[in-house]
Design a protein that fits this description.
7 strands, 2 domains, Decarboxylating 6-phosphogluconate dehydrogenase, Rossmann fold, seven-stranded mixed β-sheet, alpha/beta
């Protein structure tokens, strides 16, 4: 099938390549002309066969809203917009209603896989009407990992991003647990090789995971993470998860504490946040801050 893809950064660029490898045609647009296949959204829409499917991979909030507003003027009834960024689920509900008034379908897609998705595939959590999702299914099949897992139609519009938001909240807590364990191991004199302790956990233990594998990767590159500043940003989804928990009276002590721990990293050079920063860089290519040390 033909797909328009808007936003060709770290995620979008690799997604374009993976979809093309599956035999589909992807026409990409990005504000950086060196990455783009076309010069404008209007040209992208013009080159697509109808009914069109246009997938958005731009930052949540104003950038997504302006892109959807422009597409609403360019697309026709029967076309479909997929928001694969990290939008808030309440925005999805608004976008679905706005586009439905013009006869345009809307699907929200929570996408996980980071910079490794091109090789390993992307886990997809989608929301929207079944008929709309069925039209995009060939692209979902191209992006997802091999096998039966890695894709779910989570519910109506907004459900995909809500599921991805909870996924990221869990991720916060898991990374925090690994970081706390790593700092404690580093703090005692009796443990002389913390990196190899982490490596020993990769097989046969109940805490083995891809995040643990990435922690070992990070430690192989910088055994004591001395080149990192103990600072970790938050993307906003951790906050949204906690707000949703408050709205639904659901206790989330571990996820809440992990978000607050990131806030503390902005005050001090936290050893734990060095591991959080290293993990975020490993799976998502997120920027890190150097310690300023030359060793």
């Amino acid at each position: 099938m033909n797909l328009g893809l808007i936003g060709l950064g770290k995620m979008g660029g690799n997604m374009r390549e993976r979809i093309r490898r599956a035999g589909h045609t992807v026409i990409g647009y990005d504000r950086n002309p060196e990455l783009a296949d076309v010069a404008s959204l209007a040209e992208l829409v013009e080159k697509l066969d109808g009914p069109r499917v246009v997938w958005i991979m731009v930052p949540a909030g104003a950038a997504t809203q302006s892109t959807i507003d422009e597409l609403a003027e360019l697309l026709s009834p029967g076309d479909i917009v997929v928001d694969g960024g990290n939008s808030r689920w309440t925005d999805d509900e608004k976008h679905a209603a706005e586009l439905a008034a013009r006869g345009i379908g809307f699907v929200d897609a929570g996408v996980s896989g980071g910079v490794w998705g091109l090789q390993n595939g992307y886990a997809l959590m989608v929301g929207g009407e079944s008929a709309h999702i069925a039209k995009v299914q060939p692209v979902f099949d191209a992006l997802k990992p091999e096998g039966d897992a890695g894709f779910v139609h989570a519910g109506k519009a907004g459900a995909g991003h809500f599921a991805k938001m909870v996924h990221n909240g869990i991720e916060y807590a898991m990374m925090q647990a690994y970081a706390e364990g790593w700092e404690l191991l580093e703090a005692v004199h009796s443990v002389t090789d913390v990196r190899e302790v982490f490596r020993s956990w990769q097989e046969g233990t109940v805490i083995r995971s891809w995040l643990l594998d990435l922690a070992v990767n990070a430690l192989d590159g910088d055994e004591h993470l001395t080149h990192l500043r103990g600072y970790a940003a938050d993307s906003g989804e951790g906050r949204w998860t906690i707000e949703a928990a408050i709205d639904n009276a659901v206790p989330l002590p571990a996820i809440t504490a992990s978000l607050f721990a990131r806030f503390s990293s902005r005050q001090d050079d936290s050893p734990q946040m060095k591991m959080i920063a290293a993990l975020r860089n490993q799976f998502g290519g997120h920027a890190v801050e150097g310690s300023g040390r030359g060793e």
